[in-house]
Write the structure tokens for this entry.
Amino acid sequence: MGQARDAGARRRLPRLALLGVLLALLLLGGAGAASAHAGLRSADPADGTVLASAPRALTLTFTESVGLLDDSFRLFAPDGRRVRTGEPRHAPGRTDTAQVAFPAGLGQGTFTVAWRVVSADSHPVSGAFTFSVGRPSPATAAVDTGPAEDPLTGSLYDLARYAAYGAAALLVGTAAFVLLCRPPDPGPLRRPLAAGWWLLLAATLALLVLRAPYESGAGPAAAFTPSALPRTLTTRPGVVLLIRLALLAPTALFLVRLCRVRLCRRGPQPDAPGEGRTAPQREDRTPAPSRAALATGAVLALALALTWAASDHASAGLQVPAAMASSVLHLLAMAVWLGGLTALLTTLQRTPRTTTAADTDGSAGTAPAALVAPLAATAARFSRLAFLAVTVLVATGIYQSWRGLGSWPALTGTAYGRLLLVKLFAVALLLAVAGASRHWTARLAAAHTGLRALRRSVLAEVAVGVAVLMVSTVLSGTLPGRAATEAAEAAPVAAGVPGASVTEIPFDTGSPGGRGTVQITLEPGRVGQNAVEAVVFGPDGGLSTVPELRLSLSLPDRDIGPIDARLVNRGGYWGTDSLNLPFPGAWSAKATVRVSDLDQGSGSRTVRIAR
């Protein structure tokens, strides 16, 4: 009894280890902050600009196509009240833009704009900025621009995304293993197939229900409002998820047929007691699948993979047809490899073992003789299939990396590039483990030894493969390096000063008539050498001459500064041509204005410096 319990514990250990790896990756994958996906390339009017008259409309331009929400724009007046605007729309012929019309008679002061759109990879992005009409407001009212993302909704949605990827790999990979590798006893693979189908169904339903609150940034309860699901079904992500649900019906029929034809038969057994070690092994006579079964399975797998490609980065940007094809092949190759590994591990774990003297070195292990030849043939077929899948992964991965990165600096300078490096390391490790598996597969085929070592090697391969799949899932939801670079290089555009950053800093000396505003213009508003022009406006909005003006900048994130701009009076304005800002980011600009021998005031504002 004790030996039986020990044997059962040993059989459960690999499954528990794999489950632990999967749970850890799920938790780690959901712990990170949400990444931006569509980068904001430009805004008209731009952040911080001062306009002579109120604009008729606002136009945002992004690095990829975006979808619009009913509440994509919210405009707030200087006193904090919300201003009614027109319906959000795209600029004519430009799906990478978001535009909204402003009402007439906005008045003067500083207005706040909060925006939220859905990027082409189905993830929402949001932001807020200000612009001023006539002159900046002396004080800005506190404005609630709305939530960026509800943490619980975001976590649940990400968990459903990870589950959908894993379910697709399990479903497609196991079915491919049964059809193409022809295991001697495919009966135990019914459970992985059923688990993959049900998990994909549950994950897709969860994504469909959570889609509305995920887009709007609301809590999970918002999914049950009457308008939530109908609104989702009018968007491209909602339609794609609905198509995936519809495809699961014929997939279920295909699996039922597969079970009846191939999975419900018993595998070869020893001819008689005692023959497990001495009788000649039976030849592998597992029948090949029909062409109709192969064609049906291939069509269903392609259609399912397209529902992912239609809602990720491949559906936007350059070379969309090639990118879509590459994305589909990449996902299918990963599913065939990782899902096939899981099926092979299940087959090896369920293969009866006998004890031989060769087991003492820990590297060998035998099955009943009647199963050795078919099992070796199955392992050899999967080895060839895995090699083909790896070839496709490498080819499509190189193309997708080039398309997503755009430049070598983006490999280390963007979150997308750094995640890609992690994935490349994991794939290299996976290839090393796969090499060991091929070695033990060859031994199993040649001498019917190495079964136990092959089990361990495949288990390690599955664990690393899960890690690769998780990184791939996170990578699919991260702003590509090419887009991140384009967004970072898009310098703010001030009114009438291309490539410049304009910031309004209010000050108050506390004395009568001691209030005013300093308008700071940094050109080009990027890392490196900048020219500075500073103009002081009095309480009436007119130009004011002051005896002294000082400007300093600090970067709290890097503990840099304050850096003195060393402004000089140039007759009507203060300026310098030699302000050097070494890093991009949100710099804090502090202006100190002396209006008389005794009175001076200070104010601070954030200045964003582009790369």
The chain has 13 helices and 18 strands.
